[in-house]
Write a structure and sequence with these properties.
single chain, mainly beta, Immunoglobulin-like, Ferric Hydroxamate Uptake Protein, Chain A, domain 1, Maltoporin, Chain A, 3 domains, 22-stranded antiparallel β-barrel, five-stranded mixed sheet, 8 helices, 44 strands, about 5% helix, signal, transport, cell outer membrane, iron
Length: about 800
């Protein structure tokens, strides 16, 4: 990798030796609104030189000889403009683009996205920003710099299993769609980005809506939504090779190809990627493969596009965390941890002798998660007359895989097996290796009909989706040979049907005032039956009917600044575990969120500012209480009243041609009005079993920091070279809902340095060398964790587990674009 980077760097400098004396610079904007179009591409056709407009729509093409040239300017949803220019120019060039009358890929996500007239709170990350930060880490790491976001990584490096929270809401409460198609797992409602690694390399833009947002398809947006759009039409043929590597044995290779517009109608794009990493946590390795393919037909009023993408992951399990006793290097406390966990001598010695921040309790070589997921989408859009556009999509997702575990001294009875008689001995336990499988299918249809004329815009849309999943477990090896090979000790299946219909209406009452109404009805049917992994019978048959209304207004103080306010109601069904683990006779309730958003937006020539106040008021929010069921599974319970409220400020300012600064701040308060914690008391001699309830008033919601700050300070000392100092501060968080500092995650501040150098030589489109120095101040921090405890022997015992993140580490990337 070092040699490759050095050769590439030498090539860059050598090609730069032939510098020309003139520069073409200017801005790209919307012809009607004069708003900047960040991410617009500009190509000097005679030189095959390309530039991309920055966040203010500005571009620079250095080292251009005197003469006459043609600039081809492109931006999604706009007509390509061919601008004739003479170099040297008389000043900055202003290029105004007209909206395209032809259908573009933007119609695929239009129905579920917000725009600058929507009274909702959102951030959109364009392709240029995605590519800058895309060193092969999972998608949450690329979104880490957007407002109110906290990310975490099981293996500590951002590769493998990663997580994201927005406004304190975890992934199960964040609606995710890819091209308008639901991505959340139907049962857990979680999002597993590891199943589609390097999807960022095939992403055109990502919109994050905070709060209820606009109506979308799939899981309820109960804290935020992430709307991802994959690659859009590229009229010019291209090929690119990206190689990145660095600390912890990380290596990523990506090959992308595109046909350009063929016969004025057809476009084909493809990508393959492979990512490997050893991880920061012991044995926390990842072996990831992914692909993307799309083929599209475009006519003036018609678009038909097939998209296929997916991935295969084999990840060593790093999800157990590191006990606090190990982090503190406290041998006596570690022995207590081992006793509380019931670990044997081998496991105890692993705890005592591992690294204090890299401990992994698993040592079995195949303690892995192995899963494959493939997505198939077919999109059709048709313009009908001058006012109507119809969209429909069919989709199918196939997922299958398992995680494998070595278990010590397991009771046969826990697997539905009788004790084994060998001679005069009765053997009731054995070491085993087991696999827990998930084999699932998800398919359905989404649709929308858009009417847009004069001052009225209406969208009638919705979806019907069905999920079927088989859950089963097998023993693939046991010390006792009498145990049947590949014995299936549990099996249950699930069937979930989800349908919704929504009507969105926006009306421009005047040049300054517009109104918005969004009404959604959602129906869910969920059944599951069989035997679950604790050998208990399952019989769940529930249905829900939700009405989710939203309304708001936007008032333009001027062409560049707006006030907006909206109020929305969202309802959400419990997840699979809430039903499966619920005590007999108990049915978890739906959760309801009332969301108020009030904000101010302003965009100037050299700056942009967004200020937002939010209130998210919950009824019957499901939270962990410490209570367990009769087989030891942790239970969530509905709490009557809880809320999140705060202020978000984010903005960008161009200080000069060399300096720019992007920053965001979230100050929040996250409370449960009344919370009952449950602990189990085993008595002075550990011969009892009683529930002890402790009541807390106005306590903090777990994993909800009151302060989140992000910053990106960029310096461009010379053309094509950019250095960005990225900083992230996350305030302290509690591991449970008791506001006890002894069960919390300390605040932390992480500093990264990203350096990018690109040139556009005559013989290819672009050569880029980038470096990312993560956590260069070597902050020792943990970004996630969990806790549990009990009473016994006259004492209270607590075990805290954390997920340490890597110290100083680096990634280097070489990109060649043809």
């Amino acid at each position: 990798m070092f040699k490759v980077v050095m050769v590439a760097t030498a090539l860059l400098w050598s090609t730069g030796a032939y510098a020309q004396q003139f520069v073409i610079d200017g801005t790209v904007e919307d012809a009607k609104t004069h708003h900047a179009l960040p991410g617009a591409t500009l190509e000097v056709q005679e030189l095959k030189r390309v530039a991309v407009a920055d966040e203010f729509g500005r571009f620079t093409l250095p080292k251009v000889s005197a003469g006459d040239y043609t600039l081809a300017v492109r931006f999604l949803g706009y007509t390509v403009r061919l601008e004739k220019i003479t170099v040297p120019t008389s000043g900055a060039v202003v290029i105004a683009l007209e909206e395209s009358p032809q259908l573009t890929d933007e119609v695929v996500v239009f129905a579920t996205r917000a725009n600058d007239k929507s009274p909702t709170t959102f951030s959109t990350v364009n392709k240029q920003a995605i590519q800058k930060q895309n060193f092969g880490q999972d998608l949450p790491m690329l979104l880490n710099w957007t407002p109110s976001v906290v990310t975490t990584s099981d293996a500590g490096t951002g590769i493998g299993y990663t997580g994201i929270r927005i406004r304190g809401s975890d992934a199960t409460r964040i609606n995710v769609t890819v091209n308008g198609i639901p991505y959340n797992d139907s049962e857990s409602q979680g999002t597993y980005w590891v199943d589609i690694p390097d999807i960022a390399s095939s992403s055109q833009s990502i919109q994050v809506q905070r709060g209820v947002g606009t109506s979308t398809n799939g899981a309820g947006a109960f804290g935020a939504s992430i709307n991802l759009q994959t690659n859009t039409r590229n009229d010019a043929p291209y090929a690119s090779i990206t190689t990145s590597g660095g600390s912890f044995g990380t290596l990523r290779n990506t090959l992308s190809l595109g046909s350009g517009l063929l016969n004025n109608h057809w476009v084909v794009d493809a990508r393959v990627s492979k990512i490997k990493s050893d991880g920061f946590i012991d044995r926390g390795s990842s072996d990831l493969q992914s692909y993307y393919f799309s083929g599209g037909y475009y006519n003036k009023g018609t678009m038909l596009k097939a998209v296929v993408f997916g991935g295969k992951e084999r990840t060593y399990q790093a999800w157990y965390g590191v006990p606090q006793s190990r982090l503190n290097n406290d041998e006596e406390a570690m022995l207590t941890t081992a006793s509380n966990e019931g670990w044997n001598e081998t496991q105890t010695q692993n705890l005592l002798n591992s690294g204090s921040r890299t401990f992994n309790p698993y040592t079995y070589k195949n303690q892995v998660d192995d899963y494959r997921q493939d997505h198939y989408q077919l999109h059709f859009s048709q313009r009908i007359g001058s006012a109507f556009t119809a969209n429909a999509a069919l989709h199918y997702t196939k997922g299958k895989g398992y995680y494998e575990e070595y278990k010590y001294n397991e009771k046969f009875s826990s697997y539905g097996l009788p004790a084994v008689q060998i001679g005069d001995s009765t053997i009731a336990t054995s070491d085993i290796i087991r696999r827990r499988w998930l084999d699932n299918d998800f398919y359905g249809v989404t649709y929308s009909l858009n009417y847009d004329k004069d001052n009225l815009n209406m969208i009638l849309g919705g979806a019907w989706n069905r999920y079927t999943g088989d859950h089963f477990g097998e023993i693939i090896w046991a010390q006792v040979s009498a145990v049947p090979t590949e014995y299936r000790y549990y099996f249950n299946n699930a069937d979930k049907r989800d349908a919704n219909v929504y009507l969105k209406t926006s009306y421009q009452f005047s040049n300054r005032l517009s109104g918005y109404v969004d009404l959604q009805v959602r129906k869910i049917l969920y059944t599951t039956s069989g035997i679950e992994n604790k050998q208990n019978a399952l019989a769940v048959d529930v249905d829900f009917l939700f009405f989710n209304p939203k309304a708001g207004v936007t008032y333009s103080l001027s062409q560049s600044q707006q006030l907006y306010a909206s109020f929305g109601i969202a309802n959400r069904e419990p997840v699979r575990d809430d039903f499966v683990d619920a005590p007999n006779g108990t049915v978890p309730k739906r959760e309801t969120l009332n969301n108020l958003e009030v904000g101010y937006r302003k965009a100037g020539k050299n700056y942009a500012l967004n200020v937002n106040y939010y209130l998210m008021d919950y009824s019957n929010q499901l939270v962990l209480t410490g209570k367990v069921n009769d087989v030891g599974a942790s239970l969530r319970a509905n709490v009557d009243k809880s809320y999140r409220t705060g202020i978000e400020v984010d903005g960008t300012i161009r200080l000069s041609d060399k300096f720019s600064w992007t920053a965001n701040v979230t100050l929040s308060k996250n409370k449960i009005k009344n919370f009952d914690e449950v602990l189990y008391d085993y008595g002075a001699d550990f011969d009892q079993y009683n529930e002890v309830k402790r009541t807390y008033a106005s306590t903090d919601i777990a994993f909800s920091p009151n302060v989140i700050v992000g910053s990106g300070f960029s310096y461009r000392p010379i053309k094509n070279l950019e250095a960005t100092w990225l900083a992230k501060y996350v305030g302290s968080q509690y591991l449970d809902n008791t506001s006890n500092k002894n069960r919390s995650i300390n605040d932390y501040m992480v500093n990264d340095l990203r350096i990018t150098y690109t040139i556009h030589p005559s013989f290819m489109r672009e050569i880029g060398v980038s470096g990312l120095l993560n956590n260069f101040l070597n902050e020792k921090y943990e970004s996630n964790g969990y806790t549990w405890g009990y009473l016994g022997g006259g004492s209270e015992y607590r075990e805290n587990y954390y997920f340490p993140q890597a110290g100083t580490n680096f990634l280097l990337m070489l990109t060649l674009k043809f």
